Amino acid sequence: MQPHDHSPLDDFIEYPENEMMSRSADFLQTMQRRHSIRQFSDRPVDKKVIENCLLTAGTAPSGANHQPWHFAAINSSTVKQKVREQAEAHERGFYEGRAGEQWLQDLKPLGTDSSKPYLELAPWLIAVFSQKSGETESGDKRQNYYVHESVGIAVGMLITALHNAGLATLTHTPKPMNFLTQVCNRPENERAYMLIIAGYPADEATIPAHAKQKKPLESIASFL
Ligand code: IYR
């Protein structure tokens, strides 16, 4: 590849205006059916589906296209058990005081606590790692840019891809999260960013009423 090598944009699709309108409205409806759930079934999910969703996340834009992410897709019961044990231990500290009164008050409508059986039940846990720096092909250290922004976008696309495939998800940020580095055998230059739980919802899965209240357009957007 030459330094300024470009190729024509030959896969852009322009839709007729009415189709653009209906596609945007249809996708809104699709995404309005995405809910974080905390009751998962143990029904297996084909690895290929997860691979496709990870490849979708990998198409995310990133600073200088350095793609500063790693996804550790966990299906092994032994590893899931380790994640659950350590996450629950940290969460107990969080719910027993470390969170502080205000935070615990704000979480009340979600009904969460330190018990996380889904970390063992759900077929897939995806531990997302951010890379502050990476490596060139020859093994030299390479600086990454806008790491949080890039990984955040990739996670958004991952959740969207999983939902689009017909799976339920939960974004989980055990605090602290650094135990995931050891559990997933990740190198020094990576920081655990988020844990995504993916699978089928349990038959009895519920959504907190609080989580369904999304802000109206006028309070999230302005037009100038
Ligand atoms: N990580 C904890 C607490 C928690 C924090 C926020 I902010 C949430 O939106 C939900 C939960 C837990 O998973 O229980």
Automatic annotation (TrEMBL):
Pfam families according to UniProt: Nitroreductase
Span of domain Nitroreductase: 32-200
Keywords recorded for this protein, A-Z: Flavoprotein, FMN, Oxidoreductase
Lineage of producing organism: Bacteria, Pseudomonadati, Pseudomonadota, Gammaproteobacteria, Alteromonadales
Protein name from the UniProt record: Nitroreductase family protein
KW Mitochondrion (keyword) present: no
GO molecular function, one term: oxidoreductase activity
Cross-referenced InterPro entries: Nitroreductase, Nitroreductase-like, Nitroreductase/BluB
Organism: Alteromonas naphthalenivorans
SUPFAM superfamilies: FMN-dependent nitroreductase-like
